[in-house]
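Action item from last week, closing it out:
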Amino acid sequence: MLLHELGHFYCGHMPEEEYSKIPFRSGLSKEQQEFEAESVAYLVAKRMGIDCCSAEYLSDYLEDKNMMPVVSYDSIIRAVAKIEKLLKISK
C-alpha cells in the first residue's frame, strides 16, 4: 500500500538522500519499522474513510509477538501530518 511506503519514508526509515530533509533513523529493527509504517497507513486511511487491512496486520503482529515493539509515537504522528498535508486532507 502506498500509505505504508510513505510511512517508511516520513518516519525516516530510508537512508537520507540529497533531496530529502528527513533524517534517517538508524538502529531501528525491521519490526519497529514495519509497525511504525503500518500505524501511519492505518491512521491516514481511517481519517480518509478508507477501509484497509492495517488494523488486522497490526493486531496479528501483536498476537504473534505478544508485545508491541518500542516505536516513536512522535515520528508516527509527524508522518501522518506530512502525508495528510501532501494529500491536502488535514482536518
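Closing note: The two ends are 22 Å apart (CA to CA).
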